[in-house]
């Protein structure tokens, strides 16, 4: 009968069957807001990635929040020196869960070309890093590939196991 | 005034101040550390060297050398007048500060104090500028071995109270 | 009776409007600034100490990362100091290429200076996005030549590393003509904006004597009325073959410092047009340079250029070996900050942010 067939067509187009996890993660990955944390040369390429040619507003990320309390992602763009390291840790602690860290450039990954007395050799000494983007500085397209990897990682998380919904404190 | 004329006037006015005139690519004059304050005032007021481009220091095996590069903006000189001071005492090197005469030397003398450990008497605010107060040693000295530190190693040297004005 | 106290506010190292990690401790009475103290060193990487363990050519990538917006002029200043020390000559075509790259870099820097200044004022990102769009076109040229957008590692002691690719000169000529119309567009959009005039005129005045005594150079000095440009005074490289003026402004407030940048973009475009027309053929690197740098003569040399931010100079001391004994970098941005306290006396805290924006600092250079 034509009515039933019509209803079935409409049902196919308007009702989706999915999991709670998928919807939850899809909503979160579509609007990851980075905190404005440019330190050195990589910051200029990060602003270049935000500009008109290599727009990252198509990922929903063009709002770079000034305050860490309103942000999800910390892009450590540039060299972290020993004088600045406690401040980096402080800003990371001020971000609410869920939060992610992206180490942009070789200086944030492993100290870069500066093996000296003043430079922290990679921020993974003090922070848990989710994605590493190498390059000196990485091209804006490389940064965007880092974002897409972060989105893949977000999609794989599940409400049952994420740390901010557990009853006990993580060890 | 050319650099040779300035040297002649300087020798006339302060005959005991000039220690050495080495043969280098830029015109260089080395003077006694104790005569620095008077010679500097003379160079700024009488010889028209009103622009202090650079204050730095070199760690030689037997002495420290504090190097000043001076130009004149009024006369648009293009050759620097390099003034050097030899400090023989390597344990406690001290020299007069030129910040009261040229304000541009302010941050540069603080940096020389920070990285080389040379004291400047008469500087209005001599504190470490690029590293923090507890950092072990003065990095640009030749006996400081350049190695990487971990975060945990430097943690006990950090200040425990917040630094207000 | 109300009793008020002054408070100490920390404009901390991470702040959206301080051009990098720069900290200012401000003593405020309400909104009026009583005292301030700048704290730097949050990007100190120890480049001077690292240079003592590298050869002369291995230091060129370090110089890229000093003032990371203008890497070509940093390379040029270092190359000048080392060529003076070792007595190396530079071929003709390499000198013309150096001038072309330096003037493109100057245009990039002045556009970004204008863009970041307007960021501080509250025109959040719009003029900056226009300037970034033009900067991308210049970076296309850089990428074609040396392979990298930001850290070019191109101008080395003895010449430049590779020759210009085919198609560079016609593309550069069209881009130069386009940059002239873009400077007109910036001028029309921004110069006579009422809000800008009421916020920037007579704010943060720097008198000429204070500027000279505080060793300030570059567009800040010329905006206070002192016509001192190292390209004209020293005649380094081949700048004496090109015709260009040295514009100045009279008052030394924020509006003058902004307008000085616009005027200098026009002069750079003039130099570029002349250089692109008269560039000769030839080789681009002195073949004896590599050998001369293995055993340079014992001595010291001070080489300075008119970098887009001021006087950038390198003081290289050699003891006859492969590595320099001491390499000192004279940073224009750090020394231009000396006058911050005088300029902000009696202003409000909103003005402090804009004054800091008008000095045009880059922390990579302040801290090295």
Question: What can you tell me about this protein's structure?
Answer:
The complex is a heterotrimer of chains A (171), B (165) and C (368). Chain A is 38% helix and 9% strand. By secondary structure, chain A is of the alpha/beta class. In chain A, β3 (100-104), α5 and β4 (131-133) form a beta-alpha-beta unit. In chain A, α2 runs antiparallel to α6 (140-155) and α3 packs across α6 (140-155). Chain A is elongated and about 80 Å long. Chain B has four helices and seven strands, in the order αββαββββαβα. Chain B has helices spanning 3-13, 36-45, 106-116, 151-154, and strands at residues 18-20, 27-31, 51-59, 64-71, 81-87, 94-96, 119-121. The mean pLDDT of chain B is 87. In chain C, the strands form three sheets. In chain C, strands 1-2-3 form a three-stranded antiparallel beta sheet. In chain C, strands 6-7-8 form a three-stranded antiparallel beta sheet. With 368 residues, chain C is an alpha+beta fold. Chain C is globular. The mean pLDDT of chain C is 89. The termini of chain C are far apart. Chains in contact: A-B, A-C, B-C.
């Amino acid at each position: 009968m034509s009515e039933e067939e019509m209803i079935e067509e409409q049902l196919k187009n308007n009702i989706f069957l999915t999991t709670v996890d998928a919807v939850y993660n899809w909503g979160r990955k579509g609007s990851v807001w980075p905190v404005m944390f440019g330190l050195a040369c990589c910051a200029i390429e990060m602003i270049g990635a935000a500009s008109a040619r290599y727009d990252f507003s198509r990922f929903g990320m063009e709002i770079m929040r000034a305050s860490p309390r309103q942000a999800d992602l910390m892009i450590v763009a540039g060299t972290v020196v020993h004088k600045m390291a406690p401040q980096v840790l402080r800003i990371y602690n001020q971000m609410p869960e869920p939060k992610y860290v992206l180490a942009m450039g070789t200086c944030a990954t492993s100290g870069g070309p500066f093996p000296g007395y003043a430079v922290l050799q990679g921020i993974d000494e003090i922070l848990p890093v989710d994605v590493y983007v190498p390059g000196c500085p990485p091209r804006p397209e490389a940064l965007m590939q880092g974002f897409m990897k972060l989105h893949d990682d977000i999609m794989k998380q599940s409400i049952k196991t994420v740390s901010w919904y557990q009853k006990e404190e993580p060890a | 005034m050319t650099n040779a004329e300035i040297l002649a006037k300087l020798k006339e006015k302060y005959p005991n101040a000039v220690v050495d005139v080495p043969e280098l690519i830029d015109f260089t004059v080395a003077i006694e550390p104790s005569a620095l304050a008077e010679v500097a005032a003379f160079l700024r007021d009488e010889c028209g060297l009103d622009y202090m481009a650079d204050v730095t220091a070199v760690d030689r095996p037997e002495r420290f050398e504090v190097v000043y590069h001076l130009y004149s903006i009024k006369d648009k000189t293009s050759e620097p007048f390099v003034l050097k001071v030899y400090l023989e005492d390597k344990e406690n090197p001290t020299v007069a500060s030129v910040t009261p005469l040229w304000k541009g030397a302010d941050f540069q003398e603080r940096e020389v104090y920070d990285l080389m450990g040379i004291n400047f008497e008469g500087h209005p605010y001599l504190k470490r500028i690029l590293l923090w107060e507890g950092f072990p040693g003065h990095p640009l000295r030749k006996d400081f071995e350049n190695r990487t530190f971990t975060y945990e190693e430097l943690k006990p040297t950090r200040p425990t109270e917040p630094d207000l004005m | 009776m109300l009793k008020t106290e002054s408070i100490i506010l920390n404009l901390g190292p991470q702040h959206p409007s301080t051009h990098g990690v720069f900290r200012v401790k401000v003593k405020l009475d309400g909104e009026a600034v009583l005292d301030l103290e700048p704290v730097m060193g949050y990007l100190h990487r120890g480049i001077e100490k690292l240079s003592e363990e590298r050869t002369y050519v291995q230091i060129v990538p370090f110089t890229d990362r000093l003032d990371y917006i203008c890497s070509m002029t940093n390379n040029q200043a270092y190359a000048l100091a080392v060529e003076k020390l070792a007595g190396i000559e530079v071929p003709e075509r390499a000198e013309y290429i150096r001038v072309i790259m330096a003037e493109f870099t100057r245009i990039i820097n002045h556009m970004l200076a204008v863009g970041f200044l307007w960021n501080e004022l509250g025109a959040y990102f719009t003029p900056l996005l226009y300037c970034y769009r033009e900067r991308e076109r210049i970076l296309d040229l850089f990428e074609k030549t040396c392979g990298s957008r930001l850290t070019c590692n191109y101008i080395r002691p003895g010449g430049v590393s590779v020759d210009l690719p085919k198609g560079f000169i016609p593309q550069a000529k069209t881009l130069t003509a386009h940059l002239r119309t873009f400077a007109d567009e910036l001028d029309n959009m921004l110069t006579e904006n009422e809000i800008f005039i009421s916020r920037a005129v007579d704010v943060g005045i720097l008198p000429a004597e204070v500027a000279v005594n505080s060793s300030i150079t570059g567009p800040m000095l010329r905006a206070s009325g002192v016509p001192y440009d190292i390209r004209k005074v020293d005649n380094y490289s081949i700048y004496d073959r090109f015709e260009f003026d040295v514009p100045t402004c009279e008052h030394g407030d924020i509006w003058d410092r902004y307008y000085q940048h616009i005027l200098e973009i026009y002069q750079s475009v003039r130099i570029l047009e002349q250089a692109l027309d008269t560039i000769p053929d030839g080789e681009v690197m002195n073949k004896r340079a590599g050998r001369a740098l293995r055993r340079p003569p014992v001595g010291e040399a001070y080489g300075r250029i008119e970098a887009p931010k001021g006087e950038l100079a390198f003081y290289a001391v050699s003891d006859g070996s492969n590595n320099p004994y001491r390499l000192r970098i004279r940073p224009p941005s750090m020394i231009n900050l000396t006058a911050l306290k005088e300029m902000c006396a009696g202003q409000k805290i909103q003005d402090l942010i804009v004054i800091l924006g008008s000095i045009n600092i880059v922390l990579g250079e302040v801290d090295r």
